[in-house]
Amino acid sequence: MCKTPEAGKLPVVVVIGFHWNRPLELSAMPDLVGKVRAQGGMLVEYAWVASALLFTWRQPRIVWVPPGRSRAVAGLPWTLLSMLLGWWSLMGLFWTIQALVQNLMGGVDVTAALIEPNQSPFVQAAAADERKSRHTVALAFVGVLLLVLALAIVYLVLPYLKDLRRALSQ
User: For the segment 25-40, what is each residue's pLDDT rounded down to a tens digit?
Assistant: First the structure.
């Protein structure tokens, strides 16, 4: 039985959800590394999200991007998949925004970390590049969330305040 909230109190909603991150599948990694060594290009990590009500599933994908091809275009399949399947739970909403931002910004270049994992100068440079890329994605994600919050305030709170001001002035 659901009670209506008392005056001045907001109802408390408890959301229980199941979400998990699938680990990166490395079975195709030797083939991807071979393509980069033979043909050039880069290895880019894209994210995709699927959710339904209380279940959310997020998984990274490493994709070979040929030389001269746009990283953002190469990530479009994962972006579209997340746009279709990702929004359908509370956690899915946030993870989908993060995945869309990451994928539309061209993913995260992990080439150096995967091609030369034991070479110390390459490891340091790769780690620095990956940190910088993930930091940029995180900042863009926060920016998108702030934009969504601002739009919610403009469209949900301001009309209510106008009505309240009119009621108080009468």
Answer: 667 778 888 888 888 8
DSSP secondary structure of 34-65: HHHHHH--EEEEEEEEEEETTEEEEEEEEEEE
Cα-to-chain-centroid distance, residue 132: 16
Sorted by where each begins, the domain ranges of the chain are 18-169
Rounded to an integer, what distance in angstroms lies between the CA atom of residue 76 and that of residue 25? 20
Q: Which amino acid is at 62?
A: I
- What is the dihedral sign for C-alpha 67, 72, 76, 77? positive
pTM here?
Answer: 0.64
51 contacts 92 by C-beta, under 8 angstroms: yes
Residue 164's SS3 state is: helix
Would you state the structure tokens that stand for residue 167, as one six-digit string? 């009621």
CB 83 within 8 A of CB 68: no
In the block, tokens 């699938």 appear at 22
